[in-house]
Amino acid sequence: FPVTIRVSSGKFVVNGIARDISVNTGGTLGGSGTTGTVTLNGGLLSPGSSPGLLTVANLDASNGSFLFELDAPAVRGVTYDAVDVSNLLTLGANTVFNFQAYNDYVFQAGDTYDLFNWNALDATAFDTAALASALPTLNDSSLSWDVTQFTMDGSVSVSVIPEPTTADLILLPVKILVMASESDGHLYMEGARLAY
Fold first, then answer.
1. Are 68 and 48 in contact (CB under 8 A)?
2. What are the tens digits of pLDDT across the range 176-188?
3. If both were cysteines, with which of 9, 11, 117, 155 could 28 make a disulfide (CB 3.0 to 4.6 Å apart)?
4. CA geometry: angle at 144 spanning 138 and 149, to 5°?
5. Alpha carbon 168 to chain centroid distance?
């Protein structure tokens, strides 16, 4: 048997224990088992068969993709996909995230998804903006995805967009005021003379 399992087409599902796996373009790794080191060489990692938890020794996803299914954030690895990395998780500029709302779940304020656990993270070339843009569309315009904790603890959450404070509303005209100095030494805003 080869030292490393190579997946170049179709979906390879691990629900028990497997050795090191290399997932190439056209291949998908899934399941809720435990593997050795996983390297994504253009391949896709999609935990579970429906939502599930996949555990890997090391995961190099600097040139690969993920597909996470998200239902209510009740039980990690049961109602939403997750990955545990016993040692090093590597994310890079070419790491691509994909998400699907499972069972047509409607996301709510406060929903938090612990997508990854790791012992060490190398995300120096990874941009969380790519993660944020890939997350599912929220049905409520007062909500937004918060990815600020992702490189610290592997989680993303749904937060309420803060409403402007009274101070913000009072200072808003000052913040957007565009003034031009006229040749007569006075300042004008939209044709109205201001004290100078």
1. no
2. 444 444 445 555 4
3. 11
4. 125
5. 30
Contact (CB, 8 A) for 128 and 91: no
Tell me phi and psi for residue 96, to 5 degrees.
-120, 135
Q: Which residues face 107 on adjacent strands?
A: none
Instruction: Tell me, yes or no, if the pTM score tops 0.85.
Output: no
CA distance 137 to 126: 22
Stronger pLDDT, 117 or 50, i.e. the higher one: 117
> Which amino acid is located at 157 in the chain?
S
What is the C-alpha separation between 145 and 160, in angstroms, rounded? 9
Residue partners of 90: CB distance under 8 A and separation at least 6 = 58, 59, 60, 61, 62, 121, 122, 123
Region at 159 (left for phi over 0; alpha for psi -120 to 50; beta for the rest): beta
Q: Which two tokens stand for residue 194?
A: 């201001």
